[in-house]
Design a protein that fits this description.
351 residues; 8-stranded mixed sheet; 3-stranded antiparallel sheet; 14 helices; globular
């Protein structure tokens, strides 16, 4: 144990900032409580320096000061968002690759085991075939359904179309978890649906989610196959289904329960949605793309951009980009941003 504690390099401490070793936890906690600690106290735990949880005190290099926990959390969340984005790209590539290779193969004889289980990837053309396949999967489901529902406020027709399947699942004790965008919180249809389903359904929301996904019992998944959603892919390949389940779980951990309020932006006059729009503007996205990703109309998106410009005192889109960066709105919220005085608005500050 002593040898391990005195080791150097990440080989001795194979973990990240979200799961510190026991010694690292003790030393970092002590540094946060006291504000700083002698460098020698951190020698047994080099992981704290490697993970940038401790750094030298510029006034006295024999001492170390802790990185603020809020800054560490911001760094971890940014990393999770990057992982999710990469996961979305990999899902698209994997599906395209399997479609290509599936098209090259010869028909499997009906007497083989693979034919009895059905194809790993099946293209469902037309709403009737999609609904029939979904009904079949619903009847076979026994434990869990995971869904991702993009597009903002759900229309009553959409909710009614799938209500019979949801009620059948509830009757068999199947648990359901649904992911929506934050905009969906404003739809009365969704609230009515969740009230009907009771504790059989748990719902959470995010600023933006991946394309539509429905996953039954971690064995079969359905995703759109075209932009109009008139075609779908039925996926039964274990690796693909497991991968989609992992993507869902990572999104679920980042999402906010529908019963909980959205977090305050910490900036007077700027809503949570406007903060999200500001971050996407900073990435260079056009209004239509931002609206689609957040599940709102282009007109609503532009109204929020106009309010952002007014609040931040920007006279042009270029100046708005500068103001967004100055206010710290170009990414996940950082702790305690430096106050920014808004022009022509007296002493009003962005906090």
């Amino acid at each position: 144990m002593e040898r391990a504690m005195a080791g150097h390099g990440t080989d001795e401490h194979p973990h990240g900032a979200d799961r510190l070793c026991e010694a690292g936890d003790r030393v970092y906690s002590r540094a946060v409580r006291r504000g700083r600690l002698p460098r020698r106290d951190a020698e047994p735990v080099p992981c704290l320096l490697e993970l940038a949880l401790l750094h030298p005190d510029p006034d006295d290099m024999d001492w170390l000061v802790p990185t603020a926990p809020q800054e560490v959390m911001t760094r971890l969340l940014r990393g999770m968002y990057d992982e999710i984005s990469a996961s979305q790209r990999r899902v698209g590539s994997a599906v395209a690759a399997f479609e290509w290779y599936a098209g090259l193969g010869r028909p499997v004889p009906s007497s083989s085991p693979a034919a009895a289980e059905g194809p790993a990837i099946r293209v469902l053309d037309g709403l009737a075939r999609i609904q029939a396949a979904m009904d079949e999967a619903t009847q076979a489901c026994t434990t869990e359904v995971l869904t991702v529902q993009p597009g903002g406020i759900r229309r009553e027709a959409e909710l009614s179309e799938g209500l019979h399947r949801a009620m059948a699942l509830r009757g068999r004790g199947v648990r359901m978890r649904d992911l929506y965008t934050h905009v969906a919180r404003h739809g009365q249809g969704l609230l009515t649906y969740l009230e009907l389903m009771g504790d059989a359904v748990e719902a959470r929301t995010l600023d933006e989610v991946i394309e539509r996904l429905i996953l039954f019992d971690r064995t079969v998944a359905f995703i759109p196959a075209n932009a109009e959603r008139s075609m779908a892919l039925e996926l039964r390949h274990p690796a693909l289904v497991e991968y989609l389940g992992t993507v869902f779980e990572r999104l679920w951990r980042l999402a906010i329960p529908l019963t909980a309020p959205l977090p305050d932006t910490g900036i007077e006059g700027i809503s949570h949605r406007e903060q999200s729009i500001a971050a996407l503007l900073a990435e260079g996205h056009q209004d239509a793309v931002i609206a689609e990703r957040l599940g709102i109309s282009v007109r609503t998106c532009r109204a929020h951009i106009a309010r952002l410009s007014e609040t931040l005192g920007a006279a042009s889109r270029t100046q708005l980009g500068v103001r967004i960066a100055q206010a710290g709105l170009d990414g996940p919220r950082r702790p305690a941003p430096v106050p920014l005085t808004l022009p022509d608005q007296g002493s009003r500050n962005v906090r």
